[in-house]
Amino acid sequence: MDAAREELVRGNGVMELAALTRRAGLSTGALYHHFGSKNGLLAAIYDDFYQALGRAIADANLPRDADWASRERERTRLFVAHHFTDPLAAIVLNRTAGDPQLTDLEAVYLQAMSTNAADNIRSGQRAGDIPAILDADSAGAFVIGGLRHGIAQQLRLSPRPPVDQATERLWNLTAGALGLT
C-alpha cells in the first residue's frame, strides 16, 4: 500500500503497475491476488485516505470543554492539517471524476461525512448555537461539499497558505453558512 501511494503521488494521480511492482518488489499477479484489479488497489488507497481523515477529525481529538463553534473550528483546522500533510490529498480531491469506481467510493464517504455533519449541526441547534431554521441535512451536505472543494482550491495555491490561514478562510465560510455569530 505504501509503495502504491508513493507511486500514485509520484505519477500525479497516474499509477503504472510496472513501476509499482518494481518499487514494491512484487509480481503483478500478487497485486491482482490481493486487490483484484488496479482499480481495487486504487479503491484501497482511497479508502485508507478517508479512514485516516475520519480518525484525524474525530471527536476524541477535539477539546471537550469548548463551545460548539470553537470545537468545530478546531475540527476544521484538523481537516485542513490532514489534507496539507498528506501528499495524496490533492490527487484524491481532483482525480476521482474519471474513474466510476473511485467516484462511487468517494460518494459513500462524502455521504457519511455529510450525515455526521448534519447530526453535529443538530447538536449545535439543540445547544442554541446554530439557528433552528436551518435544515441540518442540507447544511451538513453544504458544509462538507464546501470544505471538500475549498480545501482542493487551497491545495492548488502556490505558495500554499499556512494551515492556520487556510483554516480561517474555510471556517469563516462555514460559520457564515451556519449563521454563527
UniProtKB/TrEMBL annotation:
The keyword DNA damage does not apply. Residues 16-35 bind DNA. Gene3D superfamilies: Tetracycline Repressor, domain 2. InterPro entries: Homeodomain-like_sf (IPR009057), HTH-type_TetR-like_transc_reg (IPR050109), HTH_TetR (IPR001647), Tet_transcr_reg_TetR-rel_C_sf (IPR036271). Residues 1-53 form the HTH tetR-type domain. Keywords: DNA-binding, Transcription, Transcription regulation. One of its GO terms (molecular function) is DNA-binding transcription factor activity. SUPFAM superfamilies: Homeodomain-like, Tetracyclin repressor-like, C-terminal domain. PROSITE patterns: HTH_TETR_2 (PS50977). This is TetR family transcriptional regulator. It comes from Nocardia tenerifensis.
